[in-house]
Amino acid sequence: MPLRIRPITRLRRSLLVVLLGTLSVPPAPARKARPVLDWKTGVLWETPDACNETSPVYKETFLILADDTLYHVAFIPIRRKPNVTERREIKYDIIQGDLYLQDDDGHVFKLSIVKKEQDPAARQLLNSGKMPCQP
Questions:
Q1: How far apart are CA 14 and CA 86, in angstroms?
Q2: For residue 84, what are the contacts with CB-CB under 8 A and spacing of at least 6?
């Protein structure tokens, strides 16, 4: 004799399956808040950065001079590259080890700092027209 399931029991099972299915779906992640940036002025000395030999070929590299500090930074262009000009002023900010760069069009890019070094004579080299990382 076959076992018969009553319609109300079938409805309860269906509701239980639907309820468990909706509870197991994780909520959509909240959009990450953009950091508040306090823009500083620096100079984009060179792109690609001839001093940065450790970054792979697919990365864009930049050498940024800020006061007496040189920042060697790298960026993987996914959608677009920053629209910046060598030996011109740029706006940047550093938050938690990342350098945020604002290009000439106002777009903000997050770049990773590969190397940071102090060089008090860097501004004089830039003004004299010499290339960085020359012996």
A1: 65
A2: 44, 47, 62, 90, 101, 103, 104
- Three-class HEC string of the chain: CCCCCCHHHHHHHHHHHHHHHHHHCCCCCCCCCCCCCCCEEEEEEECCCCCCCCCCCCCEEEEEEECCEEEEEEECCCCCCCCCCCCEEEEEEEECCEEEEECCCCCEEEEEEEEEEECCCHHHHHHCCCCCCCC
CA-CA-CA-CA dihedral for 69, 86, 40, 68, to nearest 10: 20
Confidence of residue 111 (pLDDT cuts 50, 70, 90): very high
Alpha-carbon Rg for the chain, nearest whole angstrom, is 27
Residue 111 CB neighbours (<10 A)? 22
> Is residue 49 over pLDDT 70?
yes
Q: Which residues pair with 40 in a beta bridge?
A: 92
| pLDDT of residue 98 exceeding 60 | yes
Amino acid type, 88: R
- Closest by Cα among 115, 68, 110, 79 to 92: 110
